[in-house]
Design brief:
InterPro entries: APS_kinase_dom, P-loop_NTPase, Sulf_AdTrans/APS_kinase. One of its GO terms (molecular function) is adenylylsulfate kinase activity. 48% of the residues lie in helices and 14% in strands. It has seven helices and five strands, in the order E-H-E-H-H-E-H-E-H-H-E-H. The protein has a five-stranded parallel sheet with strand order 2-3-1-4-5, sandwiched between helices.
Length: 186
């Protein structure tokens, strides 16, 4: 039985690097993970993003459906995307039987500091600097960020190193989905 985990948190909280490191740990234990990074996918779906509510609805629904198709094909998936509204993540929850949210908690001030240092070819640059622009839509600043109501995995990237968060995520994923596999086998 395959699974999907949505890594969510503010921009700069550590989603991408934690997801990548957790996938590497799980790969060593014969889990094979495909990471869907929204920053990469958005370049195809919306090459000139407006970050409007309508566009976000389309992008997050598309992302959830991609994850569904992969899990239906026997591929475990990590979704790496802020998804500032719970409804975006709930689309995937409704589609994918073995689904969990991994919430990376991190204060906005630290996210801003990290985002300034980030050198990611896919992520839009200077997210937080742009939050001062008229009509800006930056989660956590100009838009509300809705933390998961009941995340299966709760990580704190302020109190724990990225490596520790990745180990915690991998361990919890093993617990969550080993049990799901046992239930399905009965």
């Amino acid at each position: 039985m395959t699974f999907a985990v949505w890594f969510t948190g503010l921009p700069g909280s550590g989603k991408t690097v934690i997801a990548e490191k957790a996938a590497a740990i799980l790969n060593q234990h014969n889990y094979h993970i495909k990471i869907l990074q929204l920053d990469r996918i958005r370049k195809i779906i919306t090459p000139d993003p407006a970050y409007s509510d309508e566009e976000r609805n389309i992008v997050y629904a598309s992302l959830a459906y991609m994850a569904y198709l992969l899990t239906e094909s026997g591929i475990n998936v990590f979704i790496d995307a802020t998804a500032n509204k719970q409804q975006y993540r709930d689309i995937a929850r409704g589609l994918i039987p073995n689904f969990a949210e991994a919430y990376i908690e991190c204060p906005l001030e630290l996210c801003i500091e990290r985002e300034v240092r980030r050198k990611n070819a896919y992520a839009p640059p200077d997210i937080y600097k742009k939050s001062t622009n008229k009509n800006a839509t930056v989660p956590g600043v100009n838009l509300a960020y809705e933390a998961p109501r009941n995340p299966g995995i709760h990580l704190n990237s302020r109190e724990n190193s990225i490596e520790e968060c990745a180990k915690q995520a991998a361990g919890r994923i093993g617990e969550l989905f080993a049990t799901a596999q046992l239930r399905c086998a009965d």
